[in-house]
Amino acid sequence: MTMYISATFKELTRKRVFLVTIVLTFVFLVLFAFGARELAGAAAQSQSSPAERLLNSMVLMVLGLFFAQFLSAFFVLFSSMGTVTGEQENGLLLAVAARPLPRWKLYLAKWLGHAVWIAAYSAILFLSVIWTIHSLAGLPVLAGDVVRGLALFVWMPLLLLSLTMLGSVYLPMLGNGICAALLYGLALFTGLVEGITVYEGSHPALDKFVLLIGLLLPTDSVYRRSLYEVIGGADWAGLAISDMGPFSISSVPSNSYLLYTAGYVALLLLLGCRAFSRKDL
Predict the structure, then answer these.
(1) Which domain holds residue 214?
(2) N or C: which end of the chain has fewer CB within 10 A?
(3) What percent of the chain has pLDDT over 70?
(4) pTM to 2 decimals?
(5) Distance CA 46, CA 157 (A)
(6) Half-sphere exposure (CA, 13 Å, Cβ side) for 250?
């Protein structure tokens, strides 16, 4: 299994998209740190109250993590959308599948290889944003909140990875990438719409649509739960992000929903292993 993890990393580094992702991530973190420092300096000069500075740092945290999930999601899409059909088209899959290893184990090894590096990238990105806000904007964070938020933030791209790898068994590389990106964008859009409707009351039809999309691809719901855990250290911190327009959290996914996401990943992996075992190479 270690061999496949190492091979996945070598494969990722050979792709130009990996270098582009690293460069853009570095640029994002530098610009985010610069913006956090400037805003913190402006708040200090204006002699705003501690509560106002705390609220501003929370808003900056929400925006930073929102764009961080974008980077994490697109890293998943570009690195795994051709895991099966892409390697099949260039002949690499046939050479790998010729080894004396059951196909379902090969599929799981490929998933684990991608998952390790995606989780590492997402964790570094998440902690970098948290550290930037904590050190430059003075936002107090609790270790327990950070750990819970980190676990959920890392879990979010793994959900997308499971879906993208299943799609790579059936769809061409470009088609799979477009399909997964549209589903991710739809889940993100419904989350933003749900944040706006917090001002207008409940809409039964919209609530059912949001629930359906959340069951189809629960990435945005897991992200919102991660955000709530990070900023929810104080009793009123959750209220601070309930009045941010499309970035508001109108409802927090329950622990039962998180158990559903675990079953969601298990089901996708089972379907992927079965389809890959029957695929004509």
Answers:
(1) 2-278
(2) N
(3) 80
(4) 0.88
(5) 39
(6) 18
